[in-house]
């Protein structure tokens, strides 16, 4: 009886702390950006980097296709790769926040959530760059997330298209076909420019980059225009 009661209490706490805030932000909270607001304007976003093994090659592909993207960077990765951050900024991409060290907010305490935002913002300020947008790892929130998003005047951006490019089972063809089939007229696409250091497969971004080399021209050809969050009017 004691064990059953204890488990029930733990489940209720977890629901209140993590599950309900995550579901609320994904499906109910109108302050969360989940789609663009003009037909055929789509947003291309990347999580988990920067990573010196992949991000520069990705930037080359974007430059070749004259596309500006949004990079949700892990602050500690940004700190370790300042030259990539400066390149992103120089080439007109939007730099946004994807946490301090890519830990899962489902298990954050108040103390760690506070540290996560505070330290991340401080790291990015060292680049003389104002962070305005945030995406939580895995799209997970906790009961404290929205408080700190508001405190630091951030807008949370989620997504509606993912190609499972982080998976060890992903192939260039599977990523390409999912992007073509799933992208719609108001889509926000979520891809990744880091691999195993953020829970993805080793060398996974190499497949993403190769897929984008063929997919981006196709999406442009059918009339999609790539925008960054500043164009959304939020």
UniProtKB/TrEMBL annotation:
<keyword id="KW-1133">Transmembrane helix</keyword>
<dbReference type="InterPro" id="IPR050248">
    <property type="entry name" value="Polysacc_deacetylase_ArnD"/>
</dbReference>
<dbReference type="Pfam" id="PF01522">
    <property type="entry name" value="Polysacc_deac_1"/>
</dbReference>
<dbReference type="InterPro" id="IPR002509">
    <property type="entry name" value="NODB_dom"/>
</dbReference>
<keyword id="KW-0812">Transmembrane</keyword>
<dbReference type="GO" id="GO:0016810">
    <property type="term" value="F:hydrolase activity, acting on carbon-nitrogen (but not peptide) bonds"/>
</dbReference>
<protein>
    <submittedName>
        <fullName>Polysaccharide deacetylase</fullName>
    </submittedName>
</protein>
<feature type="transmembrane region" description="Helical">
    <location>
        <begin position="6"/>
        <end position="24"/>
    </location>
</feature>
<dbReference type="GO" id="GO:0005975">
    <property type="term" value="P:carbohydrate metabolic process"/>
</dbReference>
<keyword id="KW-0472">Membrane</keyword>
<dbReference type="InterPro" id="IPR011330">
    <property type="entry name" value="Glyco_hydro/deAcase_b/a-brl"/>
</dbReference>
<feature type="domain" description="NodB homology">
    <location>
        <begin position="40"/>
        <end position="227"/>
    </location>
</feature>
């Amino acid at each position: 009886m004691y064990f059953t009661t204890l488990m029930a209490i733990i489940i209720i706490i977890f629901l209140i702390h993590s599950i309900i805030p995550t579901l609320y932000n994904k499906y109910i909270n109108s302050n969360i950006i989940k789609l663009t607001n003009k037909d055929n304007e789509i947003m291309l976003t990347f999580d988990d980097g920067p990573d010196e093994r992949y991000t520069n090659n990705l930037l080359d592909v974007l430059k070749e296709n004259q596309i500006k993207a949004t990079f949700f960077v892990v602050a500690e990765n940004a700190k370790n790769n300042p030259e990539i951050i400066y390149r992103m900024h120089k080439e007109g991409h939007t730099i946004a926040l994807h946490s301090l060290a890519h830990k899962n907010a489902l298990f954050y305490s108040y103390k760690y959530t506070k540290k996560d935002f505070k330290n991340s913002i401080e790291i990015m300020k060292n680049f003389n760059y104002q962070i305005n947008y945030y995406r939580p790892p895995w799209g997970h929130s906790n009961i404290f997330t929205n408080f700190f998003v508001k405190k630091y005047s951030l807008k949370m951006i989620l997504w509606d298209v993912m190609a499972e490019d982080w998976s060890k089972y992903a192939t260039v063809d599977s990523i390409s076909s999912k992007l073509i089939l799933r992208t719609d007229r108001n889509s926000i696409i979520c891809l990744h420019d880091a691999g195993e250091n953020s829970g993805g497969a080793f060398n996974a971004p190499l497949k993403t980059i190769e897929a984008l080399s063929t997919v981006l021209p196709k999406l442009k050809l059918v009339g999609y225009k790539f925008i960054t969050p500043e164009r959304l009017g939020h």
